[in-house]
Structure formats: structure tokens, C-alpha cells
């Protein structure tokens, strides 16, 4: 049974697609130990000259959803992280609820945890976020974004998917990732994105 750790930032649309691929298509059909974990674009983008610091973005700060996801995980374990990522993704990515804080509040209502909204502005969660982010990123290196996938301890950036693969196509993609992870000399497979992104399928 492969151990699969998926590191996501809830605000990333590509992470949302990968989350849905693994939880909706792969996990029900494959015997795997899947853990949904957190990384943070707020941490990843710190100090980048072309990026507005998150603390200047108010209610749209990228820190806020990942803090709430961390708090949900502290209360309910991995299931709490997974429940929040799904609820926030449905509201923010699928329904396109804006501003971001409105999607955050709606997601917390969906999982029955409205009291966790206060955690969005609580920086005491940031240390745990940085530790979890490092666990996801360090095996891959600095030239990554989100999602990050670990398969039996072998880490990749991606897969970056423009839509959720379904059925056998979804399983083929996963089986390919497992095979690549088993090759100790495999490092990178990449091409330039030429199409759009489909968050509705």
C-alpha cells in the first residue's frame, strides 16, 4: 500500500484539482494510505520582490485559510484538515465566492466549526504551519509551488493538472506517479502550460 502525502495550500486552484483527483477518483479505487497535509504560499512567497507581503492584504491574506486549516487539524486530526480543504475549495474555487473571507466563513459553516474563524488572524499557528510547510517542501527543493506530492517518501512538485482527471485516466496518472517515484534516478518531468484551468468539472 503506497503512502501518499499531499501538501496543499487551500487557496491554490491547482492544489484543489490535485486534491479532488486523489480524494474523489484515486483513493476510492486504489489501496493507498493518503494523508492531506498543509503547505503555505504565504511562506513560499516570503521575501519575493514581485509579491505583495501577505500581512498587507488584510482579509485576503494567504495566511488566514491555512491558519484555519491548521486549527481544524488540531481539533480533528487529518480528517479536520481534509474537511476544511474540501469545504473551502467548494466555496472558493467551485462557487467562486468572493471576497476570500466570505468563502472562509461559508466553509467553516459547512463543517460545523464557525468558531475557528478567529484562528484566521491568530499568528500563534504560524510556527506549526512553517514546520509542516518545510516537511513538504524541503525534500523537493526551492523551485516549487503547490501542490507537492510525496509517494512513499519520494517528493515531487505537482502534478499540476488543468482539470480533474476522471475514471481510468485518473488511475493511470496515479499509477504513473507511483512508478516514477520508485525510480531512484528520476528527478523531473515538466512542460509549459498552454491551456486554461477547469475548476468546474
Automatic annotation (TrEMBL):
Q: Tell me the Pfam families matching this sequence.
A: Rv2466c-like (PF22234)
Q: What is this protein called?
A: DSBA-like thioredoxin domain-containing protein
Amino acid at each position: 500500500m503506497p503512502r501518499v502525502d499531499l501538501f496543499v495550500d487551500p487557496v491554490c486552484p491547482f492544489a484543489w484539482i490535485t486534491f479532488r483527483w486523489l480524494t474523489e477518483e484515486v483513493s476510492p479505487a486504489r489501496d493507498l494510505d493518503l494523508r492531506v497535509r498543509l503547505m503555505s504560499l504565504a511562506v513560499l512567497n516570503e521575501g519575493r520582490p514581485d509579491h505583495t507581503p501577505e500581512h498587507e492584504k488584510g482579509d485576503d491574506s494567504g495566511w488566514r485559510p491555512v491558519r484555519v486549516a491548521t486549527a481544524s487539524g488540531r481539533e480533528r486530526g487529518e480528517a479536520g484538515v481534509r474537511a476544511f480543504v474540501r469545504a473551502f475549495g467548494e466555496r472558493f474555487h467551485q462557487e467562486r465566492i468572493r471576497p476570500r473571507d466570505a468563502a472562509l466563513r461559508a466553509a467553516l459553516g459547512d463543517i460545523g466549526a464557525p468558531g475557528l474563524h478567529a484562528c484566521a488572524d491568530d499568528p500563534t499557528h504560524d510556527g506549526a504551519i512553517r514546520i509542516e510547510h518545510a516537511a513538504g517542501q524541503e525534500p523537493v527543493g526551492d523551485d516549487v509551488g503547490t501542490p507537492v506530492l510525496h509517494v512513499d517518501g519520494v517528493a515531487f512538485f505537482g502534478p499540476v493538472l488543468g482539470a480533474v482527471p476522471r475514471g481510468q485516466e485518473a488511475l493511470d496518472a496515479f499509477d504513473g506517479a507511483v512508478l516514477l517515484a520508485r525510480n531512484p534516478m528520476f528527478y523531473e518531468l515538466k512542460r509549459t502550460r498552454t491551456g486554461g484551468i477547469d475548476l468546474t468539472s
